[in-house]
Design a protein that fits this description.
This protein has ten helices and eleven strands. The chain is an alpha/beta fold. The protein folds into three domains: 142 residues, Type I PLP-dependent aspartate aminotransferase-like (Major domain) (Aspartate Aminotransferase, domain 2, 3-Layer(aba) Sandwich), CATH 3.40.640.10; 40 residues; 98 residues, Aspartate Aminotransferase, domain 1. The strands form three sheets. It has a seven-stranded mixed β-sheet with strand order 1-7-6-5-4-2-3, covered by helices on one side. It starts with 16 loop residues before the first strand and ends with a helix. It binds pyridoxal-5'-phosphate.
Length: 322
């Protein structure tokens, strides 16, 4: 056959189905609606409570496996368990080492919320992966979902979530406050809280807003530059704080992750100095894992100067009287 030249470009999706939705929880709802509702899901005992809320919304039966202090888990504990889908989290961008033989053809759900570019698993049966762009970019929302089975995209509402507009407004007020010393801190804090409350009460799946879709190519084209800055921030922190870190090998830098026994007093001590660090995640009722009380993470981001990053590291060292 003589191959034709020109015309529309061909594209082979290689059996992968893609969607963009408003958030990680939207992605989760979509994948559960795509054949996993009311199924038995095996989840890690260290996770964000919204994951369980969505599981309950779709009447999934949840069972749990234990996550170790280094944020990995032992596949042996999964052997012999009865489940339809295994849920793994790529904690802070570190890829979970998948053992296809131990999965025994069950569906694999990969929660890759800390990664802008999810990497598809190889050698497993059915799989689905999603991220949450607001965790890794200055976007207010957006989540990529990909699966090797069809996604019920008809479940996605054709309007954006109301919270996104408020989030972008709050971000603008914060930017003006920080760069132009205009307005008040409380104004953006209130608006962020309001937007988050709207997101929490909305149980739907939405398309991302046009603002987000427009910003996407800009953010992705900046990815490499941003990663270089974050990597250098990681190295600065590592020189001062490596005694307190979890040694992760992320494929994408988003947080420098500390594991400390006195996490809450450290968090409070830093907050008094205007350093607000996120604690992933608030304890989930019914689950027990020491990690809920020990993890504190330092966001890596080009909006921070090296001097600010050093200031955070020194403040933490002072807390430990070093
Ligand atoms: C591990 C994990 N999965 C899923 C989600 C849900 O993502 P989103 O907040 O974008 O809905 C979160 C949110 O924090 C999370 O931490």
């Amino acid at each position: 056959m003589k191959k034709p030249f020109g015309g529309e470009a061909p594209f082979n999706a290689q059996g992968v189905f893609y969607a963009m939705v408003h958030s990680g929880r939207g992605a989760l709802r979509l994948l559960l609606a795509s054949g996993l509702a009311k199924k038995r899901i095996l989840l890690p005992d260290y996770l964000c409570k919204i994951v369980l809320e969505v599981m309950h919304q779709y009447k999934a039966t949840c069972d749990f496996y234990h996550v170790k202090p280094d944020l990995t888990f032992d596949w042996k504990q999964i052997k012999g368990k009865r489940y339809d889908a295994l849920y793994v989290i790529n904690y802070f961008g570190q890829k979970t080492k998948i053992r296809p033989a131990l999965l025994q053809g069950k569906t694999l759900i990969i929660d890759d919320v800390f990664s802008p570019l999810p990497e598809f698993p190889k050698g497993v049966g059915a799989w689905v992966i999603f991220n949450s762009l607001r965790k890794v970019m200055p976007l207010a929302e957006g989540a990529l979902v990909a699966a090797n089975f069809p996604l019920r995209t008809e479940e996605i509402k054709s309007t954006a979530g109301e919270f996104a507009t408020f989030k972008y407004k709050a971000k603008q007020i914060k930017a003006d406050y920080l760069t132009l010393q205009k307005g008040h801190q409380q104004a953006y804090l209130n608006m962020f809280a309001m937007a988050e409350a709207k997101l929490d009460t909305d149980r739907g799946i939405h398309i991302p807003s046009l603002m987000t879709l427009g910003l996407l190519p800009v953010q992705y084209s900046n990815l490499e530059k941003e990663q270089k800055i974050r990597q250098s921030q990681y190295q600065i922190l590592d020189k001062c704080l490596n005694a307190y870190k979890i040694d992760l090998k992320p494929d994408n830098f988003s947080f420098y992750v500390l594991k400390v026994n006195c996490r809450d007093s450290l968090k409070e001590y830093l907050a008094k100095q205007g350093i607000f660090l996120p604690a992933h995640w608030p304890v989930v009722k019914g689950l027990s894992n020491l990690l809920y009380d020990q993890i504190l993470s330092i966001p890596l981001d080009s909006r921070y100067s090296d001097a600010q990053i050093r200031m955070v590291a020194y403040a933490i060292r002072r807390f430990f009287n070093e």
